[in-house]
Amino acid sequence: MIEIDHVVKRFDDYVAVDDADFAIGAGEFFSMLGPSGCGKTTTLRMIAGFETPTTGAIRLEGRDVSRMPPHKRNVNTVFQHYALFPHMTVWDNVAYGPRSQKLDKRKGKGKGKEEVRRRVDDLLEVVRLTDFAQRKPAQLSGGQQQRVALARALVNYPSALLLDEPLGALDLKLRHVMQFELKRIQRELGITFVYVTHDQEEALTMSDRIAVMNAGRVEQIGSPTEIYDRPATVFVAGFIGQANLWHGRQTGRVNRDFVEVDVLGTTLAATPGDTTIESGGHATLMVRPERVRVSMEPPTAEVVSVPATVTDLTFQGPVLRLSLAAADGSPIVAHVGAEQQLPMLRPGDQVYVAWSPEASLVLPAADIPTTEDLEEMLGDS
Ligand SMILES: Nc1ncnc2c1ncn2[C@@H]1O[C@H](COP(=O)(O)OP(=O)(O)O)[C@@H](O)[C@H]1O
Ligand SMILES: [Mg+2]
After folding, report:
1. Closest ligand 1 atom to the C-alpha of 36?
2. For ligand 1, what atom is nearest to the CA of residue 42?
3. In a shared domain, residues 56 and 156
4. Mean pLDDT by 10-residue block, N- to C-terminus, for the chain (381 residues)?
5. Quick one: which atom of ligand 1 is closest to the CA of 216?
6. In Å, what is the CA distance from 49 to each residue of 40, 73, 75?
7. Which residue in 334, 320, 331 sits closest to 370, CA to CA?
8. Structure pTM?
9. Which residues, if any, are the signal sequence (predicted)?
10. Which protein residue has the closest C-alpha to ligand 1 atom 7?
């Protein structure tokens, strides 16, 4: 449906998009996710036709559209700051596109006044605004206005809808409701959605596949579970969900499935990632906090374990967030559920942390992002 073929976009000598090369399938909900300034909007604007690639090509349904103006492309865009016509009713706002293309004046199948009425009524039903058709935008909530903007972008039946942080202006609760609505609408209509967001939870919830971007480059493309369970890089691991990341060295192989890693002041078996690391080479070990088990006695099951000291506890409702320190001082975070029957813990308590080697992943060595780094990345959009 959409092919991004080795696309580079430079602004003067600044590289905003660096060799983006991927394809989006028909009917797919595809997200571009990454911190502010990583090139998401620029990539989307090239698909829409508001920007031209410096090198490389964009193809829509097999056709090279790299130099085709936006209105000639069969795609439509919804922005965060959508502008509805304030003096028009909801119904007329949605009918604006087909009318400006004179669809209502033309004769024949799929044309004429009746066709415009049918399409507008259908789309208002899809976005659940039938009862609000005669209202003006000012009489609607933020979420309802955004649904009008959606209906308006969909009424010309684009083959893809491009959405640039469309929920960014809404409060958290409404954003959650709209995430479900968007997903439902996309499924119902079967249209390709290309969705830009810096919110990892939003991307994980809605997408069939996600392209994680960093500093103009696509670091990984995959389904939400692939990206969460098998991140390709330390950046992806830290940006998507929470992750324990520890510097170490890969020292050898345990068996067909596992390699050996010197980390946390000991040697552990771990799952190798997709990048080959030479024996003795630097590496980063990742374990998700919910995969870390905590016990008072050394575990006996088929797991790797290290002794650790409790440094802090935070009750977070469904889980207890335990901060610990390994013997070499490395921080460890464990999310402990109610099923792990632990006695009341206090800072200073000696425990064992453990995980099965399948729950760990060896990544190429890279600087480990701090909490401050991650906060800065999410600063503005
Ligand atoms: N028209 C432009 N001229 C110069 N630099 C630009 C222009 N548009 C975007 N950039 C720069 O390109 C980088 C990527 O921007 P953008 O695609 O908007 O990022 P994102 O949407 O991921 O936050 C940013 O550093 C931004 O400042
Ligand atoms: Mg942007």
Report:
1. 23
2. 17
3. yes
4. 97 96 97 95 96 97 94 88 89 92 78 88 90 95 89 89 88 84 88 95 95 96 97 94 94 92 94 90 96 92 91 90 94 90 91 96 88 69 42
5. 14
6. 14, 8, 9
7. 331
8. 0.89
9. none
10. 11
Which residue, of 172, 206, 229, is where some domain finishes? 229
Range(s) of the domain holding residue 44 = 2-229
Which ligand approaches the C-alpha of residue 16 most closely?
A: 1
Going by alpha carbons, the residue nearest to atom 4 of ligand 1 is: 11
Dist. CA 2–CA 190, nearest whole Å: 15
H-helix segments, the chain: 40-48, 90-100, 112-126, 142-154, 172-189, 200-206, 224-229, 234-239, 371-377
Q: Please tell me the residue having the least CA distance from ligand 1 atom 27.
A: 37
Backbone angles phi, psi at 262, to 5 degrees: -85, 115
From 7, 42, 43, 212, mutation site for ligand 1 pocket: most ligand atoms within 8 A of C-beta: 42
Q: Which of 140, 157, 163 minimizes the C-alpha distance to 82?
A: 163
If one counts the domains in the chain, the total is 2
